[in-house]
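Hello Y.,

Per our agreement to keep a running log of every chain we model this quarter, I'm adding this entry. I've kept the format consistent with earlier entries: sequence first, then predicted structure.
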Amino acid sequence: MKLYIKNMVCNRCIMVVRDVLNSINIEYKDIALGEVLLNKKLDSDERQKLQDALMPLGFEIIEDKSSRIIEQIKSIIIDIVQNQDGEMQTNLSHLLSNRLNHEYSYLSNLFSEVEGTTIEKYFIAQRIEKVKELLVYDELSLTEIAHKLNYSSVAYLSNQFKKVTGLTTGHFKKIKEDKRKPIDEV
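Predicted structure for the entry above:
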């Protein structure tokens, strides 16, 4: 049986949910972003116990189909941004349609109606957050960041970054550097 969990957005979330399941002795086969594959269906007491354990940690079991689809969309987008590393071979609408077995227009309308933003804007926001993270790490050039996040060019990345944040990538990097202290001054 598959259980859908809201707000699982990273590998640490998976570890936290795994710890919760282990602590309340619920057996599972696999855990992925937003999903837990259980060995058996939970009875109402087990389900409530799990929900009670997840809520204080910012997670919750998703009951309705629409919410599950939206969380799946978010999980797929987050996975693409965090883990694809320049290897996205198809466009986002095609990828979502294939993975979720729904027409993109249905997914797009549902997402916009519930989230108040478009899938595209959500995807852009996730990419820009990843760009910020990579800029702060200062391990990759802007060209490498553009490639890693499937931007067609550095110029496109830079324009989108400025449009979303109001800052150039260089100014953002400078602001972050100004706020950081060398380790020997901490």
